[in-house]
Specification:
The complex is a heterodimer.
Chain A: H1 3-9, E1 25-31, E2 37-43, H2 60-65, E3 78-79, E4 85-91, H3 94-103, E5 105-110, H4 117-122, E6 134-141, E7 150-161, E8 170-176, E9 179-184, H5 189-200, E10 207-211, H6 226-238, E11 242-245, H7 248-254, E12 258-269, E13 275-287, H8 292-303, E14 313-322, H9 336-354, H10 358-364, E15 371-372, E16 378-379, H11 383-392, H12 395-400, E17 404-410, E18 418-425, E19 428-433, H13 442-454, E20 461-463, H14 482-503, H15 509-513, E21 518-523, E22 533-544, E23 548-559, H16 566-585, E24 615-621, H17 638-655, E25 661-662
Parallel strand pairs in A: 1-11, 7-25, 9-10, 13-14, 19-20, 23-24
Antiparallel strand pairs in A: 1-4, 2-3, 2-5, 6-14, 7-12, 8-9, 8-11, 12-13, 15-16, 17-22, 18-19, 18-21, 22-23
Helix pairs in contact in A: 9-17, 13-14, 16-17
Chain B: E1 2-7, E2 10-15, H1 22-29, E3 48-51, E4 54-57, E5 70-72, H2 85-92, H3 102-115, H4 121-127, H5 139-150
Parallel strand pairs in B: 1-5
Antiparallel strand pairs in B: 1-2, 3-4, 3-5
Helix pairs in contact in B: 2-3, 2-5, 3-5
The chains are: A alpha+beta, B alpha+beta.
The complex binds FE2/S2 (inorganic) cluster (2 copies).
Chain lengths: 670, 152
Amino acid sequence: MNERTEKFFKGKGSFVDDINFPDMLYLEIVRSTKAHAKLLKVKGGLTADALDLTLVSTGESYRKGKNYEVEPVLAKEKVLYYGQPVSAVYDKDKYKAKDLAETVEISYEELKPILTIEDSLSSEPIHEGRKDNIVSRFEVGKKFSPESKIKLSDELFMERVLPNPLETRGIVAFYNSGKLNVWISTQSVYSIKNGLSRILGLNPADINVYQTDTGGAFGSKSAVYPEYVIASYLSIKTKKPVKWIESREEHISSTRPGRGVKAQLKIYGDEKGKIDGIEGKIFVDVGAYADDLSSTSPSWIGYQITGPYMIENVFIEGYSVYTNKAPLGPYRGAGRPEAAFFMERMIDLYADHLGLDPVDVRLKNLPEKEFISPTGLKVLPSKAFFEDGIKKINYAELKKKNAGISFGILIPAVDGGESAKIKVENGTVKVWLGGNAHWQRHELFVKRIIKEVLGIPEDKVVLMNGNTSELEKGIGTWGSRSAITAGYALYKAALALKEKAEKIGLKEPQQVLSSELSSEYYENMQLDPSMISFLLTAAVAEIEDGIKPVIKEIWAYYDVGEPLSLEAIYGQITGGLLMGVQEVLTEALKYDENGKPVPETLSATGIAYSINAPKYNVQITSFGRSNTPHGAKGVGEAGTIGAPPASARAIENLIKKRVNRLPLNLDLLT
Amino acid sequence: MKIKLNINGTNYESDVEPRMLLVDFIRDVAGLKGTHVGCETGSCGSCMVLLDGMPVKSCLMLAVQAEGKKIITVEGLSGKNGLNKVQKALSERKALQCGFCAAGFSIIGTWILDNEENVDYQKVKEDIAGVVCRCSGYDQIIKTITEVAKNE
Ligand code: FES
Ligand code: FES
């Protein structure tokens, strides 16, 4: 029996809101109720007058060094999005803290909010001292002058989507004997530790970050947020433990959402289905403030626009732009679903124009040997994989049901590598990974690797939560990276432990288990095309109740390299597929004309309930191992990449109208 | 105000604010942390408990409204430390990922087992429609509960 799983069913998990200390203070954040306004007065609570920091550092010079605007911890002079932290109050009673929040007085002078990419490009800058609302501009690929017979263009759009993990964000900060201890629901104890040390100017050695059980994240728990700085600051000041738990309403207004991307693309090709080139512009709405990830997002999307295909000419101009909305963050897939949706929808457009089967056009444009796209993306030939998959999902039958199809790739975010530590203690093998598990069932591959290398039975292996005092260095869990990077580091750490054991004459697993050995391994890694997995997805749509399109069936034929745990992979794939389907149908974060988020509750954000789930047909396969000792490829984001273009196409086939905006515009149906 | 609630067979007495939610009483007064808060608005079922045998969302009720009723939380579904059939199956079959929704599905799954007849995949799919799992896509959860119910 698996302890880690079992505890959740006994009610013995320790999520961040389960952590309590005597004398603890509850923190409440008072937020802006305007999307764009001057702050005329802020009275009550902790304000920017006392805590004047940004999410980068205390040093103004560092802030200026970045070419984008960084979010302040508490708004000063102006608020730039609805839900922006303006003041903070606390009390030892949770209900009283909420009452206190009501007493803070804020008065605003409202300004016109900029809410769309179009408005952003044509309006006065929302940040003083900038000449426009453009955060950054990129070019990827190479300019070309096409002589193609066929030239088709379209504009595509993916709305903002909330990560909405079932557990919202939260932190308990406790400054004690000169050390800041932080318990937090996170994807990376390291980004929290580094962030807090940088922003608050603390010595990293004086900060310990402990990952609590983490109830999902989907990108939203990777970065440092204002609330974490405020809680830490208040604990340092009061010397008391300070707890902050996000409400769902706050998650909707203030946690970083993903997507929010527009593309204007042209596809060039001949009359037989050979694509000559793809060209166009990609715009990312990063919201009111930027960071490294959001400001470079357009170039990351452009880099992988050609997916598995061999397209010789590519030129993409990318822009990120400011709007009066919450800052953008990564959402499951983070750029990969965007690239796949854009490319796949353009290929369907091209195939339709020629009257060809979309699958034939796709197969025709796959490379025969390793291909390097003009953007620098290197992909291996994949024709055998997709031809096989087409048979395995019985495309001939699916076609009769008007199925939509997508081909895709998953590029894992392996750069930076990962760390792992193994410690044998009292007959148990404890494992820490630099990337912190929260929904991916890492413990399953951890147990498997330990068993494979050390011969130690799986029930003697425990995966511990992230902890910076046990394992000092590490990166984090995102971008479908962990099986590859943390798996690799763990494999190496296990080999090192084995070697240590053999040196002192311990040969049998039982002997190792009774030892007190430990080992640690960290290595940087670089992306190798063998780590990129291939994805074939199909969807079948139907109209329900005479008006509502739904996805009835979803088929996935996914390459996962050497599968480390089939059950875990299956659940990750179905979870991702459902998110992808829902993003096409209903899931979205929209704003009203004043810049206030439209949804007020979790259900109003359009997430999937059980009754929304399609019938799944998932086939997990291996199209070669990755170039790592354990052979794994990424999987976490597969479903969110494959499902949207396939589902959009399935609905398009049904309603006979082009689907180029997500979520689906229901007016199309009338 | 003073109230007394019976949770998992134990009486908990406390002086609380009249506006205190049942879920806060369960978590903060009784100290039973298995019941979670995911949305505070009845959208997610993370806070689900059995109230006189019926599944209810404890974030939608005041603690005082539960006086005189029998409340069962995820911790009380079986004997000390053990797991009941649904919990055991969900756990063994690795139906969940992050585990935050475990209480909700344990409660609703147990209710299905005790109350529904002729259970099949579709029925379970509809019965659990008030409980959100954001990680799994629901398939393994539905299959597991269906199988346990069929073997009853
Ligand atoms: S917390 Fe009660 S339904 Fe979500
Ligand atoms: S396993 Fe994460 S919400 Fe269900």
